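To: structure desk
From: M.T.
Subject: fold request, one chain
Message: Could you run this one when you get a chance? Sequence is below, nothing fancy, just the single chain.
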Amino acid sequence: MGWLAELDRGLFDLVFPRDCAVTREPMDDEDSSHLSAAGAALLPRIGDPRCLTCGHPFEGILEGDRACPHCLDLRPAFGRAVCAFRARGPARRIVHRIKYERCPFLADDLASAAVEDEVFRRHLAGSVLVPVPLHSARRRDRGYNQAERIAGRLASLVAGCRTETLLGKQHETVSQTRLGRQERRNNVAGAFVLADGKSVDPARRYVVIDDVLTTGATLHACALALRKAGAECVDAAALCHG
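Reply: Done. Structure tokens follow.
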């Protein structure tokens, strides 16, 4: 990642004034770098009731013991996943810019907006945040791992959190974007392992961090790798669901 991509304040602002990533209006002098209060209000937040396994919101009125179709047959290695936003509209566009348009700095503002959700913030509190790793070839091509950026920002904002890069990706996988549910699971099965020289503490709670949870296959595979390494309490979180 080049140094120009990180210069989002100071002299760079004088030459290229910042606009909100959602409203496209000038940021004025707000604390956030690229997401105004008005823009954050337009992000499609997830509220309760939401699935206690994958974090997807239940539509309409919740009656009785309603199963979530998004994780009904997943049987995840993580205990619970929580997400702050639906991967729709402006939230989806921001994630796309983070991943494919070399805008990692937008992850900071989206993560800051995410912890305004009390359920999301409580879910992270006191845990070790473990970012989903990229294969070395993909990381070289992109220049950064957006999950690491997100985890680092969340750890700076939530009490008792710290981040550890515990996992590695031992072989490259194809993009999950166009794959079906079972194809996603097969694609990432066995892809993640404990990184060389790393270890886990069975007494600690770990939360695997990613930008988006779709079927939960990637977070499940990462959680499984942590459990195989000896972790006993593993949860997951993503900024967006969908």
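Reply (cont.): Residues 1-12 have pLDDT under 50 and may be disordered. Let me know if you need anything else for the meeting.
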